[in-house]
TrEMBL record:
Top-level taxon of origin: Eukaryota
UniProt GO MF annotations: L-methionine-(R)-S-oxide reductase activity
Designated name of the protein: GAF domain-containing protein
InterPro entries to which the protein is assigned, alphabetical: GAF-like_dom_sf, Phosphatase_reg/MetRdx
Protein species of origin: Microbotryum lychnidis-dioicae (strain p1A1 Lamole / MvSl-1064)
Length: 204
């Protein structure tokens, strides 16, 4: 199977089956035959994971597809600078920003503030270490509008090998209530599989 073929979906999948397929495909896509070679580096895994999810959403017209006003229009990651910026020095102070990582969709905000009086959705997911499911972003205080067509959003924490939250996976949809409880459960499984695929380096 070529890498592009990973976007193919079996017919007539339920939503639960869709996420099971996405997770299994992710594991195959990110599997490496050369541990320590860099194939499982965080940025590399993020790039393919976001592309895979975005493409699978497009190929699932039962819920999203490519129709304007219905489709998922953004899928990507934000991380602490220590995981994206080479030689970044920690100060011992609480982090103040998450920085944009690999994504699929239109250009996005280059960082997310963590110290705003009313935190945005990504900041809330990171700070609370819980999934944020937003049926209508226009009714959510603090929402950061990177794209005006976005109507709903779901953000999931991403944890490293030590179980520490170091970033988030962010998904936007052009439909109100574009994500629900079944999506939350399915995406949690996807993120957990992603975390196991990444080479986080030695546990120190």
């Amino acid at each position: 199977m070529t890498h592009a073929d990973s976007l193919a979906l079996p017919p007539n999948l339920t939503l639960s089956e869709f996420y099971q397929h996405a997770t299994t495909t992710l594991q195959a896509l990110l599997a490496t035959s050369s541990p320590g070679s860099g194939e499982s580096a965080l940025v590399t895994c993020c790039a393919n994971a976001s592309s895979l999810l975005f493409g699978l959403f497009e190929n699932y017209p039962q819920k999203w597809g490519t129709e304007p006003g219905k489709r998922v229009n953004w899928c990507g990651f934000y991380f602490l600078p220590t995981h994206l910026i080479p030689h970044h020095r920690t100060t011992g102070s609480p982090p103040t920003k998450l920085f944009l990582g690999p994504f699929h969709g239109r250009p996005a905000c280059s960082f997310v503030p963590l110290t705003s009086r009313t935190p945005g959705v990504c900041a809330c997911a990171f700070l609370s270490q819980t999934v944020q499911l937003v049926p209508n972003v226009h009714e959510r205080p603090g929402h950061i509008a990177c794209d005006g067509v976005t109507k709903s959003e779901i953000v999931l924490p991403v944890r490293d090998a030590k179980g520490e939250v170091i970033g988030v996976l962010d998904l936007d949809c052009e439909a109100v209530e574009g994500f629900g409880e079944e999506d939350r459960i399915g995406l949690l499984g996807f993120v957990e599989a992603f975390e196991r695929c990444v080479d986080w380096g030695p546990k120190v």
